[in-house]
Amino acid sequence: MKILVINSGSSSIKYKLIDMDTEASLGEGVLERIGEAKGKILYHSHPGTSRALTKKIEAPISDHSHGMEWILSLLTDAESGVIENRTSISAIGHRVVQGGEKFKAPALIDDAVTESIRANIPLAPLHNPGALSGIITALDMFPEAGQVAVFDTAFHQTIPAKAYRYALPDRLYTEAGVRRFGFHGTSHRYITREAADYLEIPPDKINLISLHLGNGSSITAVSGGKSVDTSMGMTPLEGVIMGTRSGSIDPAIISYLADNTGMSLEEIMTLLTQESGLKGLCGYNDLRDIHRAAAAGNEQAELALDMLIYSYRKYIGAYFAVLGRVDCLVFTAGIGENDSVIRERVCRNLETFGIEVDPERNRDLSDTCSIISTSSSRVKVMVISTNEELEIARQTQMLI
Ligand code: ADP
């Protein structure tokens, strides 16, 4: 069975066609600048194999429907294609950022599901409209394929009220739906399953702390295979320090800025989401640049690193208290998978928590799933490459 995974944003579509027999990618890529004069199209066929081929095309992509036509023509192209025609695609899995309280699991897409995703637009105004465009287009183009929506928030729907509610007047939850949702759920779920498999712990027994550290980052406490708390909140702005997002701050700072700087609410939100975090602290949002600057004596970069690591460690401490027993700590995503210095510093001096990292194992990762703790470390420390597309494909297959 071949499943096409679609991650459709407002002006881009990421796609991956997965052969579920081998779980390998047959073809994948991204379309960017939809609606602009010059669109960018990237396609890799048979990535990571001897048959690998890459195409880069610059051409206008008028809308999502046009974008999906491009994807189909690349996947079926005589020279670089990997399937014969559209009927070779059995199912399509769509990534949807916000499922609200309604979606606790993936959903087979019908009119009611499409309407519910639309109804959640106020909760994710930057993300859900793009996903909806992708879904509507795919329903039209692939009427015979089973179509499934997989929500970033669904894995966190097991979080108890004591952790998902904010201490605000009750009506703000009951009437306005203000609560913590959490994000990166597809990644945290994938990590949980991979760690359980690797450590040979039943998936419903594993307790772990999952650190998805990328440009956007979230840390999740998993008890008995279920999410019980997570650092992101009603939106992906809350939690640890991120590339350009502030993470948690005193909310009174917002009114202070409005009163004292004349900034509008919109300007303040842009500041908090796009100009803060690591970028706000030192001018760079990529860890590789920050390490370079810190090594050259840039004090702002050094402070940004110290603050970043400190913000991760505070959540680790908190989630040890939440979970009681922790089987493993798992690092994933751009920073988690690639930055051995951050991993070492995050785990430093945590022997009383049962955490001991082996410097060599941490430097030389053996596989897409590696243990980097010492053999005597009570808590295993792991690095697992996340694969959100595969998780979406697996869930799509399960549902159809
Ligand atoms: P996104 O949230 O956009 O999905 P990613 O998970 O791809 O982000 O992570 C991107 C970030 O990962 C980069 O901004 C950079 O800070 C970090 N990163 C990527 N590669 C490396 C590397 N080799 N060393 C250190 N950090 C890295």
Explain what the structure shows.
This protein is α/β, with parallel strands linked by helices and 400 residues long. It is 38% helix and 20% strand. Strands 5-4-3-2-1-6-8-7 form an 8-stranded mixed beta sheet, sandwiched between helices. Helix 11 crosses helix 13. The chain binds adenosine-5'-diphosphate. Adenosine-5'-diphosphate (ADP) binds next to helix 10 and helix 12.
Task: Report a brief summary of the structure.
With 400 residues, the protein is α/β, with parallel strands linked by helices.
Distinct helical segment count: 15
CATH fold call of the largest domain = Nucleotidyltransferase, domain 5
CATH architectural designation of the largest domain:
2-Layer Sandwich
Mean pLDDT: 96
The CATH homologous superfamily of the largest domain corresponds to ATPase, nucleotide binding domain
**Any idea of the CATH class of the largest domain?**
Alpha Beta
Spatial arrangement of strands, main beta sheet: 5-4-3-2-1-6-8-7
Helix amount, in percent? 25-40%
Gross geometry: globular
Structural class, by secondary structure, is alpha/beta
Low-confidence stretches: none
- SSE pattern, N- to C-terminal: EEEEEHEEHHEHHHEEEHHHHHEHHHEEH
End-to-end separation: 11 Å
Give the amount of beta strand, in percent: 15-25%
Overall tally of domains: 2
Largest β-sheet summary: 8 strands, mixed
What's the alpha carbon Rg, rounded to whole Å? 22 Å
Quantity of strands, as a count: 14
Ligands present: adenosine-5'-diphosphate
